[in-house]
Design brief:
- With 188 residues, this protein is mainly beta.
- Helix content is 15%, strand content 41%.
- It has three helices and twelve strands, in the order H-H-E-E-E-E-E-E-E-H-E-E-E-E-E.
- Strands 1, 2, 3, 4, 5, 6, 7, 8, 9, 10, 11 and 12 form a twelve-stranded antiparallel sheet that branches.
- A hairpin with a 2-residue loop joins strand 5 and strand 6.
- The protein is globular.
- It starts with a helix and ends with a strand.
């Protein structure tokens, strides 16, 4: 328990020490790779993301997943693209129009575009309360997302304001990272 606390504290301190200047130096127009990472550090490249500068500090992005890595599953009357491992890790596209912009100060739209749902292999159907929301932080290597729990049922109907990301801080909870197959996401 203490070891886990120290690891989380060290990770949090490293994120705080990182600056938005590093983000600006790391992020430039161009293509970066998108990785999902296991707790033991093994990673899986799942696609790429292209950034285009719009104005000082603001970038538009386009995510292209490598769909050859994902298998098609028909879960709870819905076709899903899933990665297979100790769990199914299913990509859940954000279903509403959004600007696809990101800055060092606000990465919420990018976080909304990287939603997943996990499913235990022996479970029946899809349980949308098993959503994964990667809260992104700036690091020296680029961006690192840590999995948080999210009930994806909240996206069943469109938000009142399509110009503001609907998932807010109080909508996500800490996830038990040791129990999840792919608790980290990196863009570098």
């Amino acid at each position: 328990m203490m070891k886990r606390f120290i690891l989380r504290l060290t990770f949090t301190i490293s994120l705080v020490v990182s600056s938005t200047t590093l983000w600006s130096m790391e992020l430039s127009s161009g293509i970066k790779q998108l990785y999902l990472q296991q707790t033991d550090g093994q990673e899986k490249e799942i696609g790429d993301i292209e950034f285009t500068a719009l104005e000082a500090g603001l970038y538009q992005y386009k995510i292209t997943l490598d769909h050859h890595l994902f298998k098609d599953y028909f879960l709870s009357m819905k076709e899903m693209k899933c990665l297979e491992g100790p769990e199914l890790w299913c990509f859940i596209p954000y279903p509403y129009k959004q600007p696809r912009t990101v800055s060092a100060e606000d990465m919420r739209w990018l976080e909304h575009d990287l939603l997943f749902m996990f499913k235990k292999l022996d479970a029946f159907g899809a349980n949308f309360w098993n959503g994964i929301y990667y809260r992104m932080e700036v690091t020296e290597q680029g961006l690192r997302g840590v999995a948080h729990s999210l009930d994806l049922n909240m996206l069943a109907s469109p938000p009142d304001d399509l110009t503001t990301p609907p998932i807010e801080e109080f909508d996500v909870d800490e996830a038990d990272l040791e129990k999840r197959w792919l608790p980290y996401l990196e863009i570098r």
